[in-house]
Amino acid sequence: MADQRVVVVGGGLAGMAAAVALESAHGPVTLIEARKTLGGRAGSFEDPQTAEVLDNCQHVLLGCCTNLLDFYARIGVADRIHWENTIRFVDPRGKTHGLRGGRRLPAPLHLLLGGATFGALSLRQRWQLARAMAAMLRLGRGGRAKLAETAFGQWLADHGQSEDLIERFYEIVLVSALNEQCRRASAGYAIQVLQESLLFHASGYRFGTPACPLGRLYEKIPCRDVRLGTRMTGLRFSGQRAIGVELDDEFLEAQAVVLATHYQALDKWIPPELAAADGRFAGLSQLESVPILGAHLWFDRPVLSMPHAALMGGPLQWLFRKDSEGRVVHGVISAARDWAGRPKDQCLDVLVNQIRSTFAAAREAKLDRGVIVIEKRATFSPLPGVDRLRPAQAPPPGGIANLFLAGDYTRTGWPATMEGAVRSGYLAAEAITGRKFLAADLPLQWPARVLATAKSE
Question: How much is the pTM?
Fold first, then answer.
């Protein structure tokens, strides 16, 4: 493919990862994006009232996100990530409980002291959690794959995890990672998140947030032909092949096309007879979309002194400080099905009241302004058996031979995360070029390596 153009449609993380990987393989690449900025759901927008650059929603990454970190290194922004080793849980009374990871001990010993003294949980709950973590550790990567068809709620019940522990720990950690209630999610994916972030490698626990608006990370990606504000109007086919992309005023001939758009838009571009012959499209209509709510809040005084807070009382699950004083904060509600249709003012009242009741500094604070952003189709739900519906990036025999898919909904081995999106782009680039781009997972450290009895394939 070295002298043949590849057109990548969609400038979110999946499309950017595909384009950057393909560009490094020395082939001509054109990346087109309908918006005027890159990033997609993990991007930013300009507030029409103030011209301030705001993120669609706060995104965080963990040290186990090896491909996302590889992508940041490729585009030269790895130094713009602020890292912490402590996650700050805040209970409804405003008391902070830090879960700290040790810097020098290997996994899972790095969390031994922090877990034993984690005051957000009772001694009984800590013992239950320790037993469950030991069971997850013994599963290894191979064992968790066998739980893909099992609901995590069933696994928790089978392993004696109490309802109060589920509410005070599992829901807080996993709802944000999976964008789904943890009981509904596949046990395979829920355990994957906990294994990779807590149990396998001490670096997996690092908690990272961008030190600038997300959109600023993508301002200078190493792809020479990036066309923003450019909308694809159609795909042109010849037989079982895509021969190019139609724009408003131009036709881009292509030897291969990567569609890195939302899965619900694919039927707009693929003729029914071609989709029927390509098994990748058969299960897409059965994927369930789940919304995420982001709340940008400006107060008249500082309300949050710490960089972030994992809130144990809901409905806000996370709160992030967005300025040096703590007057500007951003709140997140994942799996926000109950919020998608609510009026903005009603949302603001509920969220501001939660902040006031939780943080003493906010008791008398006045909300100067609030912006609610609800991404109604943020991710697919990682329900048991969902991988049967997720398509591969490369076409199957008899499918559209040179049409490739990228997106966190594709078969990446990860749930719908930024890591999964980048993996999908790399996998699409691998399928096109035959070159290796996917970064390896963090290795299991000793003693995790010894304790994991079910080995990966």
Answer: 0.96
